[in-house]
Amino acid sequence: MEATRGRDVMTKPAKVLINERYIALVGVLNRELVLLERLIFKLSEAELLTRAEESRFLGNIFDEIDAVEHDLGALEVARSMLVGDVTATLGLAADTLTLGELIEYSPDLAVEPLEGLMRRMGDAMTEIRELRERGSRIVIERLDQITAAIDRVEPAVFGQDGYNEHGYMTAPASASSRFDYSA
Question: How far apart are CA 26 and CA 58, in angstroms?
């Protein structure tokens, strides 16, 4: 079988099999894209909740993000298997061929959907990276705000010299355990 355009020299049953595999591949990639868009939505939700200081809901969002990542992992396995089937049918080495390069060997009916999906998935991955970077900055900003608030509260409650406004000795400013075994 010729490696430059393997589909041109295939028998009719092989062409049908390849067409079916490519259609399945388009379906799996489309499902992956839907999950990537769902991940973008969940990351955007997490960002909005963090900005709104509604951190009590973040646990739910992170559970949903984990579920999406789990589903993406399962689809990656399915995609890998389909790519392996297609490359084996074409007589190509699966471990050296990227998904983008596989488009070169695809049937005409699959070229446009595959290229569109690859482009949209690349855009989604770029957006996910941007959301991750923005989320990291927001979390750092929030931690800085919390630290500054604690720094403002401590002297107001305990006073600079360890006495509160009523003249009573207060707890030391250093961190202590809730369980004090020194009695």
Answer: 33
